[in-house]
């Protein structure tokens, strides 16, 4: 992929599931086309995607889908997946925990009753979020370097930054009580490439 002539991240005009892909590419210093679909164009574009869904990563005209798999692929390509399988296992663990947390919050999108919807959001804010922050804090403490694996940023750290600054902010309201997690988020946010991307990006 180092010699790829064209990289596109195809998604709707929001952060959502594609943002971790954009962040990995940005952190790696890899140029890409950020294709943001208008909702009214979706039915036209949908048949051209591998599984009728986005995000899609297109590399030199070849399209792949499934956000977790795509993030892992990019991280491996750009040496952001640790030094060995044990590191990769920790990164996969963080990714799976993140997905569990996302699914806990996603219940609110599927709930039509406003009272029940608000109850789900409150639960994520006061119970589920802090529980998962505790999981992440423990993993960081176990490694002892300020990162989830090794001595530098990997996909795991970028995933946590994405959650904490994206649509799962509500689950991270207690982040000040988890200093190691907060430090990871601050460290990623202080990266010059990420800082510029966030400053320029559409919200």
Automatic annotation (TrEMBL):
Which residue range or ranges hold the GST C-terminal domain? 84-203
Q: Which InterPro entries match?
A: Glutathione-S-Trfase_C-like, Glutathione-S-Trfase_C_sf, Glutathione_S-Trfase, Glutathione_S-Trfase_N, GST_C, GST_superfamily, Thioredoxin-like_sf
Among the GO biological process terms of this entry, one is:
glutathione metabolic process
Please indicate which superkingdom the organism of origin belongs to. Answer: Eukaryota
Q: Does the keyword S-adenosyl-L-methionine apply?
A: no
Gene Ontology molecular functions: glutathione transferase activity; structural constituent of eye lens
> Pfam families recorded for this chain?
GST_C_3, GST_N
Which UniProt keyword terms apply here?
Answer: Eye lens protein
* CDD domains linked to this entry: GST_C_Sigma_like (cd03192), GST_N_Sigma_like (cd03039)
Instruction: Indicate the segments forming the GST N-terminal domain, all copies.
Output: 5-82
The family assignment reads: Belongs to the GST superfamily.
Q: What does this protein do?
A: S-crystallins are structural components of squids and octopi eye lens. Contains relatively little if any GST activity.
Q: Can you say what this protein is called?
A: Uncharacterized protein
Q: Which gene name does the record give? A: 106058638
């Amino acid at each position: 992929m180092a010699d790829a002539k064209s990289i596109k991240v195809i998604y709707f005009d929001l952060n959502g599931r594609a943002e971790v892909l954009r962040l990995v590419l940005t952190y790696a210093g890899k140029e890409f086309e950020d294709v943001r679909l208008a909702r009214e164009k979706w039915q036209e574009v949908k048949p051209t995607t591998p599984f009728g869904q986005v995000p899609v990563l297109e590399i030199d005209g070849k399209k792949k889908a499934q956000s977790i798999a795509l993030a892992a692929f990019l991280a491996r390509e750009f040496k952001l997946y640790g030094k060995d399988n044990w590191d990769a296992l920790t990164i996969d663990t963080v990714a799976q925990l993140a997905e569990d947390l996302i699914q806990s919050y996603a219940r609110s999108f599927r709930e039509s009753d406003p009272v029940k919807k608000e109850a789900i959001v409150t639960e994520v804010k006061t119970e589920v979020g802090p529980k998962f922050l505790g999981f992440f804090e423990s993993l960081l403490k176990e490694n002892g370097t300020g990162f989830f694996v090794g001595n530098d940023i990997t996909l795991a750290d970028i995933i946590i930054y994405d959650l904490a600054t994206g649509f799962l902010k509500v689950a991270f309201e207690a982040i000040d009580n988890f200093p190691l997690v907060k430090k990871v988020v601050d460290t990623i946010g202080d990266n010059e490439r990420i800082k510029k991307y966030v400053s320029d990006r559409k919200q």
